[in-house]
Specification:
This protein is of the alpha/beta class. It has 12 helices and 10 strands. It has one domain: Aldolase class I (TIM Barrel, Alpha-Beta Barrel). The protein is 43% helix and 17% strand. One of its GO terms (molecular function) is indole-3-glycerol-phosphate synthase activity.
Length: 265
């Protein structure tokens, strides 16, 4: 069993536990009191390349990333540094995230928020909306076609934007032909072994039709990389670990987004 399969299996168990603690009907009741809309997809298409800055406590490959930091201080730094949107990793067993992190981020800034997790059940879609997400991540590799279609449809029904993540040509075909997804995330990290290859974005980009929003995920540490992606038509990048490890995440973001030379993080 590879890393992704282990995480998905653990997620199914965790969702069953949470569903017993908080029934779906209770989540639905919270939807009526959702806050102001913060359009996630629109934030990715502003002039220049947009940065989705991620809060991530740990990962299976890197271990603990920034000991002693709080969600509030990190997302405030991201907002000061010019992030277009936030990604909040809420998976618990492998990444030490939680829905409390999502709520803390929502309360601490005005940026649109992506709930980054391994969504495998409609319950999690309602959970995302109830806890303050503006968008969700759907990982094509973690879902069959029926699951993908159902979760995507439910998200749009709840007025959540969807970042549909792919890693190879077959997954991209499923995202485009099966869903006609508007926002395509190309993950440079192979979730079966967590290796990273930024060339993955360049290899798949030519197969993405015009008019789609493209997000390149993982493996970025300097401005030159973002400039290259911007030249070939990538709309946004998702960056987590390098920003989380930076002495000052706001300064690190400015170095990435401002048009001046910067040192690698």
């Amino acid at each position: 069993m590879n890393v992704l399969e282990r995480i998905v299996e653990a997620t199914h168990k965790e969702v069953r536990r949470r569903r017993e603690e908080v029934p779906l009907s209770e989540l639905e009741a919270h939807l009526a009191v959702r806050g102001d809309d913060r359009p996630f997809s629109e934030a990715l298409t502003r002039p220049g390349i947009s940065v989705i800055a991620e809060h991530k406590r740990r990962s299976p490959s890197a271990g603990e990333i920034r000991k002693g930091s709080t969600v509030e201080e990190i997302v405030a730094a991201y907002e000061r540094g010019g992030a277009a949107a936030l990604s909040i990793l809420t998976e618990g067993p492998h990444f030490a995230g939680s829905l409390d992190d999502l709520r803390a981020a929502q309360d601490s800034c005005r940026l649109p928020i992506l709930r980054k997790d391994f969504l495998v059940d409609v319950y999690q879609v309602y959970e995302s909306a109830a806890w303050g997400a503006d968008a969700i991540l759907l990982i094509v590799a973690a879902l069959d076609d029926d699951e993908l279609t159902l979760l995507h449809r439910e998200a749009l029904t709840l007025d959540l934007d969807v970042l549909v993540e792919v890693h190879d040509e077959e997954e991209l075909s499923r995202a485009l032909e099966g869903l006609d997804a508007d926002v395509i995330g190309i993950n440079n990290r192979d979730l079966t072994d967590f290796s990273v290859d930024v060339q993955r974005t360049y290899d798949l980009l030519s197969d993405v039709p015009a008019g789609k929003t493209v997000v390149s995920e993982s493996g970025f540490h300097d401005r030159a990389q973002l400039e290259d992606l911007e030249r070939v038509g990538v709309d946004a990048v998702l960056i987590g670990e390098s920003l989380m490890r930076a002495p000052d995440p706001a300064d690190a973001l400015r170095d990435l987004t401002d048009h001046h030379d910067s040192e690698p993080l």
